[in-house]
Amino acid sequence: MNQTVGSEDFAMNVAMELPYLRRYARALTGSQTSGDNYAAATLEAMLEDPGLVDRTKNTRLALFGAFHAIWTSSGAPVAVEESGIAARAQDHLSRLTPNTREALLLATIEDFSTDQIGEIMGIGRSEAEELVRIAQRELAESVTGRVMVIEDEAIIAMDLQSIVSEMGHTVTGVARTRSEAVALGKAERPDLIFADIQLADNSSGIDAVNDLLAELGDVPVIFITAYPERLLTGEKAEPAFLITKPYTEEQVRLAASQAMFFASTETLQH
């Protein structure tokens, strides 16, 4: 028999899952601002209407289910004044088959089973499976471009290069330090950056990315880290795309496709 979780325990469980809801919301919208707005709206709705969440369910399922109730009722990304990559992201969203990216992100980034995706989205298992297949096809047919890797672990760097090359992207090179990253980015502008947080000389991948963005302007970045909760605090600018170590090839492929799809600038091949 399912048992209702007490208010304090439920609140604590929600707090633990919130960084991952933010990660999902940002990947879904392609924007930190829009994603965080949806996460905040979900929490506000849960406070105003306790009946929105079934506390006899697993907290993670209940939280993501509440999010989807808000998401589907709005029918579109949060209406905020965005620019650059975020603006292009919102433009692209209107062109996708409805519900496909939600299902794929839930499966690949958040590691929900097909049954759980159906429960979260309020659909059957077979429909959830079909939505994932459609999303995989649409993203694979999107765009290709130049990818830069900032990673000090040789095996991981080689793995990332292999995955993105098989997807049809061109790898501009691998940087192991902040200074190498800046030099590489200036030498050949990337369309997408994969970046580790801790680099070979104890320099910061975040600092390297900030240096590059200051030089290059809008370029989508996918951070790879073993500690995602350290980047998803909600207290400062944070990445829209984040992969947790150890990652899977499918997660890398999805994140790259998402980022490229959102950022399809004039330099990308349609």
From TrEMBL:
SUPFAM superfamilies: CheY-like (SSF52172), Sigma3 and sigma4 domains of RNA polymerase sigma factors (SSF88659). Residues 146-260 form the Response regulatory domain. Keywords: Phosphoprotein. PROSITE patterns: RESPONSE_REGULATORY (PS50110). It comes from the Bacteria. InterPro entries: Bact_response_regulator, CheY-like_superfamily, PhyR_sigma2, PhyR_sigma4, RNA_pol_sigma_r3/r4-like, Sig_resp-reg_PhyR, Sig_transdc_resp-reg_receiver. One of its GO terms (biological process) is phosphorelay signal transduction system. The modification 4-aspartylphosphate is found at residue 196. Pfam families: PhyR_sigma-like (PF22233), PhyR_sigma2 (PF22029), Response_reg (PF00072). This is Two-component response regulator. The lineage of its organism: Bacteria, Pseudomonadati, Pseudomonadota, Alphaproteobacteria, Rhodobacterales.
